[in-house]
Design a protein that fits this description.
Helices cover 55% and strands 19% of the residues. It is an alpha/beta fold. The protein has three domains: 1-114 and 439-539, P-loop containing nucleotide triphosphate hydrolases (Rossmann fold, 3-Layer(aba) Sandwich), CATH 3.40.50; 123-152 and 328-435, RecF/RecN/SMC, N-terminal domain (Glutathione S-transferase Yfyf (Class Pi), Chain A, domain 2, Up-down Bundle); 188-324, no CATH class. The strands form three sheets. Strands 2-1-4-5-6-7 form a six-stranded antiparallel beta sheet. Strands 8-12-13-3-14-15 form a six-stranded mixed beta sheet. A three-stranded antiparallel beta sheet has the order 9-10-11, with helices on one face. A hairpin with a 7-residue loop joins β10 (394-403) and β11. α4 (132-167) runs antiparallel to α11 (328-373), α7 (212-242) packs antiparallel against α8 (249-277) and α15 (509-521) packs across α16. The longest helix is centred in the middle third of the chain and has 46 residues, at 328-373.
């Protein structure tokens, strides 16, 4: 159960602390005092949506913290779990479970099993046809859910085999189309006769062609300067040093070094001459290089950024071709397994269908009995079960139907029930399912809207019944419901200077009677107090 709720900076709430009790907790108070903000805060700490407009004016963040007593929960520390959520103006969220940071999705998933919030507009789950099978299956109990889980495991295998067959080109036409494409790709790469680094060599050749004139002119000038000037000058210098080499060893060394440079320079001159002869290209050769570069670039666009990647892709395609051509035996095995699973699925789906048919009538009867208690004696609830294709729940399509008046045909809930009727239908289902519903905390925000009198009293009785197995927190405007509370809280506004703030008071017994009187007649009088005491005594 929720033991303490701490709210800060939400709407007109600056900061409040609420200590709830087990059983039936009633929130009442004047309009606009912040009752719905308190329920909204519980929704926020349960991972619900939050708008930055909810942050109290003048503040830059909102904070909600709740202490929940769940002694048997694996995350409980000394029986308690502390959950908090802080939201800032810039949209940043900080969510924690027992001080450990979690994402909003993790928070929501965790709280889904702890808190269930129902508002006057929160009957959408009941109106959503997809949820109806969940309500029925929950009623059918753990033994049925165990059978359903076995079916679901089998169904997942069924889906997985179908996926593998599709990936394995189980369809012959699809398989042949894929092979044709793969053979085309392999042949295109093979016919190109690619060589590693060929593209780099071609780019170097193309660069030489583009700069051929500039290269030739520079090589000619360098060759002329070496042959006509440098070599001739060095030759003269050598001859002069030869005349004095015998005089001193140092002249011999210098002469030897100069001769070595002379020979090196001759080699350079020969290289320059060869380079120059390579700068002459035929037009046909130029076209071949350009065409080859275009061909390689086209393959790169299709199969990889480098020649090495293209060749690797070819190897992968050849492996895939080999795999496809040898899939027949594997697919045969898969199809045999699929046939066996399909037979077993059909058998189990029929079993689930028969249980739903048989025991669905019990749920119908129980809900119809609750609807009578909730002052809807002419309403009749019916569960429509139709067979469809395999899905994760079996082959059943479930839809809740109702007629609220005698002589009318059964219609889907969404097309029939009014707001007040929908609240009572939802409450009837919750009452029937309360024994199997494992969510410990149920919160209701003004679900009594649209009902009064005997119907209101009946709703209060049902909520009181549910509170025996769950902690129930409800915002109400009905005296007959408020009178049944185990703990009653009064929400009111207080003006301090230029600011309006929400305040909350845990009422003692006399204050509870006075509040019931106020709700019942709008004023606290001797007559309304007497009526309030009668309502309180009838609990």
């Amino acid at each position: 159960m929720i033991s303490t709720l701490h709210i800060k900076n939400i709407g007109i709430i600056d900061e409040i602390m609420i200590d709830f009790s087990k059983g039936f907790n009633i929130l009442t108070g004047e309009t606009g005092a912040g009752k719905t903000l308190i329920i909204g805060a519980l929704g926020i700490v349960a991972g619900g949506r939050f708008s930055k407009e909810m942050i109290r004016k003048g503040e830059n963040h909102s904070f909600v913290e709740v202490s929940i007593y769940l002694p048997n929960h694996p995350k409980a520390v000394d029986g308690n779990i502390i959950i908090s959520r802080e939201i800032f103006e810039n949209g940043r969220n900080t969510c924690k479970i027992n001080g450990r940071l979690v994402t909003v999705n993790e928070l929501k998933e965790f709280m889904n099993n702890i808190i269930n919030i129902h508002g006057q507009n929160d009957n959408q789950n009941l109106l959503n046809k997809e949820n109806h099978i969940k309500y029925l299956d929950k009623f059918l109990g753990k033994e049925f859910l165990s059978k359903k889980n076995e079916y679901t495991e089998l169904y997942n295998k069924y889906v997985d085999i179908n996926r593998k067959l599709k990936e394995n080109y189980g369809d012959e036409k699809e398989k042949q189309r894929k092979l044709d494409l793969l053979y085309y790709q392999v042949n295109e790469i093979k016919n190109a006769n690619l060589k590693i680094n060929e593209d780099q060599e071609l780019e170097e050749q193309r660069n030489l062609i583009v700069n051929a004139e500039k290269i030739s002119k520079s090589l000619n000038e360098a060759d002329m300067q070496i042959n006509e000037n440098a070599l001739n000058s060095i030759s003269i210098a050598i001859k002069n040093l030869e005349k004095i080499e015998d005089i001193n060893i140092k002249y011999q060394k210098t002469l030897s070094s100069l001769k070595s440079n002379y020979y090196d320079l001759q080699e350079i001159a020969i290289d320059l001459s060869h380079y120059n002869s390579d700068t002459s290209f035929e037009e046909e050769e130029r076209d071949e290089i350009e065409n080859r570069i275009d061909e390689i670039n086209d393959l790169k666009r299709k199969y990889g950024n480098t020649i090495e990647e293209i060749l690797n892709y070819k190897n992968e395609v050849e492996e895939e071709i080999d795999k496809i051509e040898n899939l027949e035996e594997k697919n045969k095995t898969l199809k045999t397994e699929l046939t066996k699973i399909t037979v077993e699925l059909e058998k189990r789906a029929v079993e689930l269908h028969e249980i739903r048919q048989k025991h669905g009538i019990k749920l119908e009867n129980k809900i119809n009995s609750e609807l009578t208690d909730l002052e809807m004696p002419n309403a009749k609830f019916k569960i429509n079960i139709e067979n469809t294709n395999f899905n994760k729940d079996g082959t059943d399509e479930i839809e809740f139907m109702i007629t609220t008046n005698k002589g009318e045909d059964f219609k889907p809930l969404i097309k029939t029930a009014s707001g007040g009727e929908m609240s009572r239908i939802m409450l009837a289902i919750k009452t029937v399912l309360s024994d199997v519903d494992e969510v410990p905390i149920l919160i209701f925000d003004e679900i009594d809207t649209g009902i009064s009198g005997k119907a209101g009293n009946a709703v209060g009785e049902k909520l009181k019944t549910i509170s025996k197995n769950h902690q129930v927190i409800i915002v109400t405007h009905l005296a007959s419901i408020a009178a049944k509370g185990d703990s009653n809280y009064y929400i009111y506004k207080e003006v301090e200077g230029d600011n309006t703030k929400t305040r909350i008071k845990n009422l003692n017994e006399q204050e509870v009677i006075e509040e019931i009187a106020r709700i019942a007649s709008g004023i606290v009088s001797e007559i309304s107090l007497k009526h309030a005491m009668e309502l309180r005594a009838a609990v």
